[in-house]
Amino acid sequence: MERGAATGRRVDLELMRTPPPKERADAARNRVKVLDAAAGLFARHGVESVSMDAVAAAAGVGKGTLFRRFGDRAGLAAALLNQRERALQDAILSGPAPLGPAPLGPSEAGEAVAPSDRLHAFADAYLDYALDHLSLVRMSETATPGARYRLGAYGFWHRHLVILLDQMGDAVRDSEASAHALLAVLGAEHLAAMVESVGRDRARAAVHTVFDVATA
Amino acid sequence: MERGAATGRRVDLELMRTPPPKERADAARNRVKVLDAAAGLFARHGVESVSMDAVAAAAGVGKGTLFRRFGDRAGLAAALLNQRERALQDAILSGPAPLGPAPLGPSEAGEAVAPSDRLHAFADAYLDYALDHLSLVRMSETATPGARYRLGAYGFWHRHLVILLDQMGDAVRDSEASAHALLAVLGAEHLAAMVESVGRDRARAAVHTVFDVATA
DNA sequence: GGCCGAATAGGACTATAGTCCGGTTGACTC
DNA sequence: GAGTCAACCGGACTATAGTCCTATTCGGCC
Fold this sequence. Notes:
Strand content of chain A: under 5%
Oligomer: homodimer
Helix content of chain A: over 70%
Radius of gyration of chain A: 19 Å
Largest interface: A-B, 35 and 35 residues
Largest sheet of chain A: none
Order of helices and strands of chain A: HHHHHHHHHHH
Shape of chain A: elongated
Number of helices of chain A: 11
C-alpha cells in the first residue's frame, strides 16, 4: 500500500519535471550555457559571491533569459542539484535496502527491512548528498524565506519519512509533525552551522541521535 | 559549578547590551522614534512588507541613522524583541523551577529539579516566546544567511541546553552537538512552516517528542 | 555663555535580485 | 520555401538592503 502511494507520487514528480512537451533549440542551448557557466563560476569563486548578473554575463545571455528559465537564485541552484537529488530519490523509491524498499523478488515478500533501519539509512544518504553540496543546497533553501518548504523535494522527503514513521506502529504519535521535526535537523542552514561548530562526524552522529526518537 | 558558569555568562550578555557607557540625547530620542515607528508599521502592514526606507521615513530619520544604530534588518528585529527575550533569559537563570534553577532557600540545596523537566520547560517557554512573535523572530534569524547562529541569544540557548544535557549523565553522548540539533527544531523558519502545516498544538507536541531524545 | 572635539544625522550612492516589454527567432503548416 | 504565431531573447527598469561622506549637533569645559 505504501509502496503504491510512493510510486504514484514519483510519477507526479516526473510530470512536474517535464512541464509541457517541447523545448526550443535556442532555449536548450542557452540552458546548457547557463548551467555550465554557473557551475564554473560557483566552483571558482564560491556560490555566495557570484551574482546572477555575473552568471548571465558569463553564459552570454541576458538577465531576462536567466530568470525566465530558472525563476530565481534558488531555482538555478535546484537545477544544478537536480541530477544528484533525483538519484537519491530513485534510490529511495526503487534501490536496494535499507535505503530503498526490500528487494522485490518473484516470490512475494522478500526480507523485511525494519523501518527504523530505513530511517537511519535515509539520514545517512541525505547527509552524504547535502554535505557534499552544502553551499548549493543552502542557496536553494535560503534564497527566499520559506523557500525550503515550498521546494518539491521537501515534499518528497517529508512523505518518505511519514510513510516510514507510520510503519513503526504506535511508537510515533503524529507522523506528519514528527517528519517535519526530523527534517528540521537536516536543514542546510543548520547543517552548515553545526558542521562549523563541531565538525562533520559529530554533526552526523547528532542527526542519528535525533532520528532515534522514533525508535525509542 | 554549572550555575556559576551560567551566571558568568549572564554578565557577559549584560556587558554586550550596554556597549560603552553613554548615549547622546538626540541618539536616545531617535532610537525611541525608530522603535515606535517600526512597531507601528510592523503591526499595521506585517513585518515582511515593511522596508527599511519606510521605517526611516516614518520615524523621521535618515537611513544612515537607522542602519548605524541597528546594523541591519535583523538588528532592528532583535532590538524590538530585546525585552521579551531578556525576560525569558532571566527566568531561565534565576526564575522559579522548573524553567529556572531550583529555589535557593537559606538552607543549602532546595528540591532538586530533574534536568529533563527543565528541558521541557525550556521548550515550552521558548515556544511561547517564539510563536507569539514569530514574524519578528523570523526576521531576526533569516535577514542574512547564518544570522541565527551569530545571534548572541543563540549562544545563550545553546549553553543552557548543554548544561542541562550534561546534567543528565551518560544518556547524552555529545551534549554540544545535541544542543544544536534540538535548537534546529526551534528555528523560526521551521516553526513557521510546521505551524502552517499542522497547527500550533501538534507542532508543540512534535518539539517535545524530539526533546525526549535526551530522556530516553 | 561660548568653544571644541567627537559622535551623530541624513541623504546621495552602490550593488543586486527580480520584472517588463519590444524586437527576434524558431517550429509548424500549407 | 514563405507565412504565421507563439515562445524566447535581452537589456533597460524598479525596488530594496546596506555604505559612505559631509554638515550638524551635542555636551563637557573654560
